[in-house]
Amino acid sequence: MTNPATTQQSGAIPTQPGPREAAESKEAVMTADATAPKPGGTVSAPGDAVIAWAGDAVPDGAVIPGAGPSGTPGSRPTVKLREADPDDPPRYAPEWLELREPADAAARAHDLLDPLRIRLANLPGKSGGVAIHDLGCGTGSMGRWLAPRLDGAQHWVLHDRDPYLLHFAAVASPRSAADGSRVSVETRRGDVARLTPDALKGASLVTASALLDVLTREEIDTLAAACAGAGCPALLTLSVAGRVELTPSHPLDTEIAQAFNEHQRRDGLLGPDAVTAAAEAFSEQGATVRLHPSPWRLGPEQAALTEQWLRGWVGAAVEQRPDLRDRADAYLTERLAACAAGELRVLVHHTDLLALSRPAGGAS
Ligand SMILES: C[S@@+](CC[C@H](N)C(=O)[O-])C[C@H]1O[C@@H](n2cnc3c(N)ncnc32)[C@H](O)[C@@H]1O
């Protein structure tokens, strides 16, 4: 389901929109002149039932803030919905996405930008600017990072299935391109795993960030085919690589990491296998694929993120391997204490992928 753009908006981000309010505002086109999102509420451990909202009321079906990579049994990892149907897809707390945004920005692979810029500069008929589709945009972190690093007018089409996050993404969209050119935005609500080449018609670039690992192989094949069909490059960033390095080390690190990785692979999701699968899928479509590491480097200055990440990481591992619970509880207590004392460093490995498909109707 897509929502063509119709509404002009501008101004500061409103107080926390509930899902209903967000749904009403899901059709949005705007020039980017808004402030960054400041979701109300506190970040708390996954599973905490406490919600602190900027507005008066807790919206129906609100996302519980605090979203390390954990989930309820049978759900996909990362976020929980209060009173949600267990078959509903997970919702991502804007607080979690906000917390990780600076670490994501610091991690992103700059080396992939030059080949991307060259491809965009050589696109035929781009005098009016480029159209960039950001898949699984969340609150729009990718656009806020990339738009100011590319020259020329840009129109961003922000895709997500969550209208609540789309609302934040639209209101806090990037302001202008690297050379001061105009950046405009529209939102489309829908399932990005079912994109067709038609949905990407006219696209100059597809982006995604922290998305691939929550897709299946079939969904990644569909995405690669859609990009190849539209002849547009894809910059798919910050997919988990399944490797974590904690300093100082602990005897339980490896077992927790393995259990977490298995948790990520539940229900056919690719988890740490996503980048390899995506590289294969795009290569099979004739694209040239480049990979680059993009690790989170977490130290004392990222303690709040590290804390939430640790809670989610260990929580998912225990959910996958309940026999770990007692040892994992002690492990988490110890790790959180080290984190609070500024004595813990964590390297969470990710990979960025740039796929240069053959331009539609032309040679590569
Ligand atoms: C981990 S968050 C990343 C958000 C954002 N890209 C960022 O880097 O902050 C994953 C996002 O993908 C969205 N998402 C996951 N699967 C999706 C699907 N099949 N269709 C549409 N959106 C999806 C979620 O709603 C969420 O906003």
Alpha-beta classification = alpha/beta
Shape: globular
Mean pLDDT: 80
- CATH domain class name of the domain at 19-240 and 271-295 and 351-356: Alpha Beta
CATH architecture of the domain at 19-240 and 271-295 and 351-356: 3-Layer(aba) Sandwich
- The CATH topology of the domain at 19-240 and 271-295 and 351-356 turns out to be Rossmann fold
Q: Counting H and I runs of at least 4 residues, what is the number of helices?
A: 10
User: What is the terminal-to-terminal distance?
Assistant: 31 Å
Major sheet attributes = 9 strands, mixed
From N to C, what is the helix and strand string?
A: HEHHEHEHEEHEHHEEHHE
Cα radius of gyration in angstroms = 20 Å
**Number of extended strands:** 9
Point out poorly predicted stretches: 1-83
Task: Estimate the helix proportion, in percent.
Answer: 25-40%
Instruction: Output the CATH homologous superfamily of the domain at 19-240 and 271-295 and 351-356.
Output: Vaccinia Virus protein VP39
What ligand species are in this complex?
S-adenosylmethionine
Strand content: 15-25%
